[in-house]
Amino acid sequence: MFVLIYFSCKFSALERMGPMKKILLIHTGGTMGMSPGKSGNVASTQFIDEVFQYVPGVRDIAAIDFQSQFTVDSSNISTNHWVDLGTLLSNNMERFDGFVVIHGTDTMSYTASALSFMLNNLPKPVILTGSQRPLSAIRTDAKSNLINAIELATYDIPEVCVFFDYKLFRGNRAKKISIDDFDAFASPNFPLLAQVGLHIEIKNNHRMPAGMFRLDKAFSNEVLCLRLFPGVDPVYFESLTQSDVKVIILEAFGAGNVPVLEHSVIPFIKKMSHSGKLVAITSQSMNGSVDLHLYDCGQQALDAGAMTCGDMTTEAAITKAMYLLGQFEGNTAKVRNNFTLSLAGEITE
Ligand code: ASP
User: Fold this and answer.
1) Where along the chain do its domains lie?
2) 129 is catalytic
3) Is it true that 18-215 and 223-339 share their CATH fold?
4) Does domain 18-215 fall into CATH 3.30.470.20?
5) What residues have CB less than 8 Å from 83, skipping those under 6 apart?
6) Is the distance from CB of 232 to CB of 268 less than 8 angstroms?
7) What does the pLDDT look like over 145-173, one tens digit per residue?
8) Distance 73 CA to ligand 1 centre (A)
9) What global pTM score does this model have?
């Protein structure tokens, strides 16, 4: 084990022995490939030319092929885009050694989470990256994010990851935490998978496939996320009990606490449960795990039928609910049975 770690720490892909790895670079949009337009930054259609113009050296890291199915500001990403992307990755799984997906930073952690659930027993690395400034800008983080993501995709890290600012994160644990820092992502409840400095330090805590690779493509959008705040009137939630929404992710306080006095949300949670719907409690605090036993304000939610999101990010909890509802065709009992299990390392069981 020590020898393996030593090797991976010491050498870059340029220096490692063996035939050049084949990497598929997929462009989906976002700032990295944008250029200034009349109404703010807009997607460039010439992105691959720009890559070879601004960072020609990437050809020395790997044999790179390029695909672009859609180029959008990632605020426009929806479940159809995830299905397209998952299908593209699955169709090319045999042909390439690794994948780099250029994606807008705004919803990158949602796409990373969704892909981590779709791509079961993933045998190759899928690394999402983007940047805070376009590749064509002089002072940009795009070059280093792109070069390092491509290099890391040549390693044996068979996970959906996010690479940003010299750090490789498990994708379904990553969160965008800054609008304008280059250091824009964090993984509050799971350690880094790799860190890039003078050397590439692989932490060797990544997952490995446990069976045959399988793509799951069904998602449901009968999911809603609600954020609690002091004074919120649960009367506004009432109509949801009659709606098509099947899972509510409730962003509660601290360890998962909810109001139980004047503006109690307990009757709402009870009504949801009685109508066969689910309420899953996540926290507005980034670090740590929801524990509904810790306070009466959490225990009452649990007794009313709420589930815990544990230490999942809100992004992972939302996409997991969409994925499970899709897989189980809306059967909320089955969703409940699977929601707190780790499907792709997104939760500490
Ligand atoms: N709005 C952009 C996007 O998410 C922001 C970015 O890429 O950083 O597509």
Assistant:
1) 18-215, 223-339
2) no
3) yes
4) no
5) 118, 217, 219
6) no
7) 999 999 999 999 999 999 999 999 999 99
8) 6
9) 0.94
